[in-house]
Amino acid sequence: MITIENLSKKYLLQQSVQNEGLRHLLEEYLKNPLHKISSQIKTDKREVFWALKNISLNINQGEIVGIIGKNGAGKSTLLKILSRITEPSGGRVVLRGRVASLLEVGTGFHPELSGRENIFLNGAILGMTRNEIRKKFDEIVAFAEVERFLDTPVKRYSSGMYVRLAFAVAAHLEPEILVVDEVLAVGDYEFQNKCLNKMQEVGGQSGRTVLFVSHNMNAIANLTHRCILLEKGSLKKDGPTAEVISAYLEAGQEKGTKVNLPAQLKKPSILRAEVFTSEPNGVHHQGKALRFEFDIHMPEKTFGKAFSFQICDAMQRPVIHLWKYDKETPTLRKKGINTLLCEIPICRLNVGRFQIRAILAGSPPDPIDQIVEHACEFEVVIHDRQTLFGWRPEVCAYLEEAVWIEN
Question: What whole-number distance in Å separates Cα of residue 209 and Cα of residue 203?
Answer without folding.
Answer: 6
